Amino acid sequence: MKADARCLICTANQALRVLNKHIRSEEEKWIRLQDMMKVISGFKWGLKPIEMGEILYSEIEKIIGKRDIYEKEKRRSNEIALSILDKIEKAVRDSADPLYDASKLAIAGNLIDLGAPSWDEERVYNKILEILEKPFGINDYETFKKELSNATSVLFIVDNSGEIVFDRLFIEMIKEYNPSVQIFVAAKSKPIINDATVQEAEEIMNGIATVIDSGMTIPGTIVEKSSEIFRELFFESDIVVSKGQGNFEGLNEEENEKLYFLLTIKCPVVADFLRLPEGTMVFMKNTKKR
Amino acid sequence: MKADARCLICTANQALRVLNKHIRSEEEKWIRLQDMMKVISGFKWGLKPIEMGEILYSEIEKIIGKRDIYEKEKRRSNEIALSILDKIEKAVRDSADPLYDASKLAIAGNLIDLGAPSWDEERVYNKILEILEKPFGINDYETFKKELSNATSVLFIVDNSGEIVFDRLFIEMIKEYNPSVQIFVAAKSKPIINDATVQEAEEIMNGIATVIDSGMTIPGTIVEKSSEIFRELFFESDIVVSKGQGNFEGLNEEENEKLYFLLTIKCPVVADFLRLPEGTMVFMKNTKKR
To answer: Which of chain A's ends, N or C, has fewer CB atoms near its CB within 10 Å?
Structure first.
């Protein structure tokens, strides 16, 4: 998915959010944001938003001299999500279709920026209960379920911290639905924004799935830039689950009919692209065939 | 009032809004917005937001080759406001304190971007009725009323089109409250965003006040850059009424205790400055004395 002019401003906004966290002087913030705007002014037409993110965050890291700028928020996200999962897991497992409910929870988890300081646990919990009542805007769940029955392998591409905790329950439900399926979880090589890294995925997925390094250092996944093991699993697995907007932006032009996009629409550019309102939950089979 | 880093992004957003109206090609929008970001990257720390607006809009005018880019919207704003005034004027005039109600209507008129295509007349009307129920966040109305009793001259600095129609009723109520007062209305020299121009003010204020040219070509008022007649009236009038955020941003550091700021807080930067939430209506006497 190609970025448009709105993504230029969104990228500048992301820069300011990071600068606000790390710089106190208003004058320095002003100057640094202008430096970032100069970088953004040089972005070539045709880039994907996640490629813009890669360039921006590598520049920001230089300024603030820090590699993992959302480290604290990511940890907090996982803690909050684990605590919420404690409360909600039984209801999902006991529901009429645990696989469906778990998929919805995993997609809802994508909506909430769990690391945002204004989100306390109770608010996140209530928000999730509210979201779970909403239907999917695109719903290919039944096709997914049918294909899962005959699958022997699933590649699950995770997105953010926090959300990844709910992904674990969804993966457990996938395994309960089809115990013969082997599951690989692909995560980022190194920290980028609040995306889950390989290290984090290994902690969370411990014992339920094999974690692989996608080779990605951008806030999404682009096949041509990915690791060999990722490419192999991407093309050979019976089902590929892509979580979140960043992975959607990078993979939506792939010709791979085994691919499912599970995301919450978080920005007007993706909303226009999918012709659905922001906030919509999507469980969508890729339509581009080989 | 000095701009901060948020104003850099707001200025880029304003640029994109204009580009969206005048350019169809997504690639050209991308390139032109990047041009604007380069200009914004050169803004000196210490500028007022309205000074940034002046530079930006003069660059945008070059790109789109048009002088009065909000001409249509301004006309539509005035038409909608006149039609709403028809419905609401009697209630204001018959109220317990028509001067107070008219001031509130004039401030509420500032909140609504009457030119926005999504605002039809009925929606604007309902929104205004809703706003009129809210109290002022800062309320120096009683002091204003007392000072008005003894005043012989008032300088009234108008802000946007649409809003200016409600200003007229407020000015009429000022004259009914103190028939011996002489009223001067200051408006912009030439079109800038949706600010009311001298020409427009003359049409709307016809017969009820003397219109003067403030000398301003920026979306606000800065005394050092204003016309001689404006400066004379600004310092010699018994009361000065400054409408809207743009005029507030330019005048809030003036040492003039006859000055009142009537505005609706429309952005987080002014909200932080006044320590009040966005959307708050303000009727505030200037605290800086000579």
So the answer is: C
